[in-house]
# Entry
Amino acid sequence: MNETTRIYLDPPPWVHSVLVVAIISTGAAALGIYFGSVVTWPVVAIAGLALVAWWRTTYRTGGNRRTFPRYNVTVAASLAATVFLCHGGFVDQLTQLFWRAADPPAAFHEAGFLAVFAFGATALFLWGGLGVYLLHPLGAYMAWLVFLWSIGLSLCCLMLAVAWRSPGLGSFFFVAMLGLGVHGIRSTISLHREEVARHVRVGAVS
# Structure
């Protein structure tokens, strides 16, 4: 081996699972410290559901590039929804409903919420979009995460709108987000079934 030798890294599939679990655990610990349990548990639940769905579907068959446009639209809608929530007094109203979330050591404020969930999450989702396009195994997980994130975020916001007794025009936007997430999941399952059927046909021919 010399300075011109290329090293190709092709880890076994289980490495991707370990990496996802490690990221979820680390992220959960960080969110718990800075934002408290009110924010942490829904995020961990969505990430865990995405992990289970990934394991049961596209973990072995891989993703499909036809998911890419739906993925991008859902990411854009999620970013718009997060910015809308931050500028609409979401953190203050959430603190009033769950006042313990604002107690130390949790730093529950709009600036931190915007930094983590608008910019940090969007950066992660954009990186995941590259994985979706390149048909990387982690991209298949990110597709599940984004679609479930859209559903979870919209449901939480709709329930909080009912609790605040102020549905407003924002509720229509979150209903649209809910539809994007459901459509994304249905298309992911459909494409996965097509891939499984293709593998079966190839195996039967060979």
